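Supplementary Note 3. Input sequence used for the single-chain structure prediction.
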Amino acid sequence: MAEQPEGRVLFGVLDETSATESRVALTPDIVTRLRKAGVSCLIESGAGEKAFYTDADYEAAGATIASAQQILQQAHAIGFVDRPSEQVIEQLKPGTWVIGMLGSFTDEAYISNLEAHGLTAVAIERLPRQLSAAQSMDEMTSQNSVMGYKAVLEAANAYGSFLPMMTTAAGTIRPAKMLILGAGIAGLQAIGTAKRLGAVVTAYDVRPASKEEVESLGAKFLDLGLDFSKGQGEGGYARALTPEEQAAQQAAVDEKATQFDIIITTAKVPGRKPPVLLTKQGVQGLHRGAVIVDCAASELGGNVEGSTPGTQITDGGVTVIGAPYLASEVSTTASNLLSRNVADILTHFIKDGQLSIDMTDEIDQAMVVAGAKE
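The predicted structure, written as discrete structure tokens, is reproduced below.
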């Protein structure tokens, strides 16, 4: 492999593809952009194939195709779709910068391990997304937008009827009634997609500001008869409800859910257990053939009580799809957006041609969770 050009930051990306992951943290167009910013790129052979980018595409853009071992030992910074495994951490040289969704809110032992190995860790989940300077770095927003779009397509594929109203020679078919729980980035994208497909859409979110956003997209806001007037939390996310508020919300949603054919839940909380919005009782109240897509399903639980990644069909004939990997299923667009986010984070930390931390900067203060803090 060629030596790093003097005075340039060397940025590496590994092949993270798997049975559930098709994204890549660097796309050819971003290679070109980074070169202009004084960054040379290394990418593991085959890393972009599931996102439909070949090694030749990367080489044409100016990247160097390398082995994983070369990247681990030579890169100054490595960008991840997810986060480095324990095995990868063991192979990284001290001083390497790691950029990814590191799970820093809930996995202190993992962050301590990064620190112990002398790595500088930049946790994307801690991005102060309310800052205008942080908008182009916001991976949560970009990937949740893809997720919301794909969730509706997933639901439409599983639903046994049309989404739009259709008049045929055999009669008129009524439109599907869809409920979207959580009107953040993913929820709003789901509303827009469902409306374009012709469904009758209703949405709910605990944040007071969401009502206007929902209605601006032509959906109806679900009135639960509850007042969570202080539902806005830090960083643009909904705040955690008290146990009493959550119980009241669950009961109200369970009651209203019986009116709908499709329910999509999008209330993810970065690095934390998602709130249960629909209980098992609520699922049991849905009609046979109803479909639920739980975008928050994970090993931590989901927005639907008892949901897990994958598809389940209840005894009552309700299809429950735990779908945490939806962004990966739109691999080209999701990778394009993710690559831009990671690259903008990287270049934010490049000052005078070197990677460095400025602890007077609000973004640096928030995101650097391990490593020397100057």
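The domain at 146-325 is CATH 3.40.50.720 (Rossmann fold). Residues 139-158 form the longest helix (20 residues).
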